[in-house]
Design a protein that fits this description.
alpha+beta; 8-stranded mixed β-sheet
C-alpha cells in the first residue's frame, strides 16, 4: 500500500490547467483513475478526471469561469463534463455501485469517502487518487495499484468484477497492450465470467468499447486478442475468428479515430450481424456499410467506371471497398488520385440549362465526370460532350 506518498506540486501542476488550482475552495478534490496512472508512468494525459467528496457549486462555478470551456454538460447524478479545445475535465461526486444482475448498468449512490469510490473501479492501476486539495498532494492507493503498476500487472479490484460488468474484459485487453502489462491470476480467471455474462450487455455498450479500441496504436493486437478470447463470439455467434491479414491492411490506412471501429469488425463478421440487425446501427454507420457492400463492375474497369460506383464514398471507404473486392491497391490509389485532381468545367446546375429533367441531368453529370476522369473529354468540348450524353439518355 502506498497511501501517503507525496507528489511534488510543481511536477503535477505542470500536467493540469492552472484554472483548476485557482478554483479550489473548501471540499476535498482528487485527481483519479487514468490520469493518475499515466502521471505515475510519466505519460501525458489529455482528459482529467476529478472526484469530490462533497458537491460544491461554488467550486464548479469558479472552475467553469476559469477554464472558459467550449461546452459544459451535466447529468442527473452530480457529474459534470467540461469540454475545452484540447481536453476534457470530468467532475463526479464520490460514489458506490450496485448491480441488480450480471451485466446490468450499475445503480449508483453518493458516497462521502474517496476510498469507497476507488474500490468500485475496475483495476488496481486505475484505482489510485491524488488529493489536490487541500495540499500537500498525497497519493491515495489502498489497493496497491502503484505496486502493480511497477510490476506491470493488471489486477481486478475484486472477485466477480467481469460478472458485474463484462465490458471490463475489453478494457483489460486494451490496457494490457497499451501499457505493456500482464494479467494477474485473478484477472485471467475473470474472463470466464465475461464470456458467460457478456450476452446481457447491449450493443451500444459493446460499440463504446470497440470505438475506444479503434483509437489505440496497438489496435490490431487488441482486436486479435478479443477474437481469441471468444468474448465477441460469446456475445453473438455471428462474430467469428478474425482475418489477421485483412485486419493488418485496414490498420495501414485507417486513421486512429472512433468512427472507424466498424471497419475493424469486418474481419470478424460484422456484415453478418449487420444483415440481421440493421436497426442497431446509426444512420451514418448503415450508409457506410451499405456503400462498401456495392458490387464491383464486371470485366475490366477504369477509374472513370469506378466513379459511378464510388462517387459518394470517402477515401477510407473506397480503400475498404477495394480490399473487400480484392482490387489491386494501385487501381484504387489511381482512382483516388484522379478524383481529387478532376475539376469539372460544368456543374450539375450548368447541365440543368440543357434539360428540365433533374434525374436526366444527374445521370449526364455522372457520365460526364466519369469521362473526364478517364481523359475522354477534349479540351473545350465539355458542353458538346454533355449534350451528346443527354441525347443518349431516355
Amino acid at each position: 500500500m502506498n497511501s501517503g506518498f507525496k507528489v511534488k506540486f510543481d511536477v503535477l501542476s505542470s500536467y493540469l490547467p492552472t484554472g483548476i488550482f485557482a478554483s479550489l475552495s473548501t471540499v476535498n478534490v482528487y485527481l483519479v483513475g487514468g490520469p493518475v496512472r499515466d502521471f505515475l508512468l510519466n505519460k501525458d494525459f489529455f482528459d482529467i478526471d476529478l472526484v469530490v467528496e462533497r458537491w460544491d457549486d461554488k467550486f464548479i462555478e469558479n472552475l467553469i469561469l476559469a477554464l472558459t470551456p467550449q461546452k459544459v454538460s451535466r447529468s442527473g447524478f452530480l457529474t459534470l463534463k467540461i469540454i475545452l479545445r484540447s481536453f476534457e475535465v470530468d467532475i463526479a461526486h464520490a460514489r458506490e455501485e450496485f448491480y441488480d444482475y450480471p451485466g446490468a448498468l450499475p445503480r449508483v449512490i453518493p458516497s462521502y469517502d474517496i476510498l469507497c469510490d476507488l474500490k468500485r473501479r475496475d483495476f488496481t492501476v486505475n484505482s489510485m487518487a491524488i488529493r489536490i486539495y487541500p495540499q500537500p498532494f498525497t497519493l491515495i492507493d489502498q489497493l496497491d495499484g502503484y505496486g502493480d503498476l511497477r510490476s506491470r500487472i493488471l489486477r481486478v479490484n475484486k472477485r466477480d468484477s467481469f460478472k458485474d460488468d463484462p465490458t471490463r474484459s475489453f478494457r483489460a485487453i486494451r490496457y494490457k497492450h497499451r501499457l505493456n502489462l500482464k494479467y494477474s491470476y485473478e484477472t485471467l480467471r475473470e474472463f470466464e465470467n465475461a464470456r458467460y455474462f457478456i450476452r446481457n450487455v447491449s450493443f451500444e455498450r459493446i460499440r463504446r468499447e470497440l470505438q475506444k479500441i479503434a483509437k489505440e496504436k496497438k489496435r490490431v493486437d487488441i482486436f486479435l486478442e478479443i477474437s481469441d478470447s471468444g468474448i465477441l463470439s460469446s456475445w453473438d455467434q455471428r462474430f467469428s475468428f478474425g482475418d489477421k491479414t485483412l485486419l493488418t491492411k485496414l490498420d495501414e490506412f485507417l486513421p486512429y479515430e472512433e468512427r472507424y471501429w466498424l471497419f475493424f469488425l469486418l474481419p470478424f463478421g460484422i456484415l453478418n450481424y449487420f444483415e440481421g440487425n440493421p436497426d442497431k446501427f446509426t444512420s451514418a454507420e448503415k450508409k457506410s456499410l451499405q456503400k462498401i457492400l456495392r458490387k464491383k463492375p464486371a470485366g475490366k474497369f477504369s477509374p472513370g467506371s469506378l466513379y459511378k460506383i464510388l462517387k459518394d464514398m470517402a477515401p477510407e471507404e473506397v480503400k475498404v471497398w477495394g480490399l473487400l473486392n480484392d482490387i489491386d491497391e494501385r487501381v484504387i490509389n489511381e482512382y483516388l488520385k484522379q478524383i481529387s485532381s478532376t475539376v469539372p468545367v460544368l456543374g450539375l446546375k450548368d447541365i440543368l440549362r440543357f434539360t428540365d429533367d433533374p434525374l436526366k441531368a444527374r445521370l449526364a453529370y455522372e457520365t460526364y465526370v466519369s469521362m473526364l476522369i478517364d481523359g475522354k473529354v477534349p479540351h473545350g468540348k465539355d458542353e458538346e460532350i454533355v449534350k451528346k450524353i443527354l441525347k443518349k439518355i431516355f
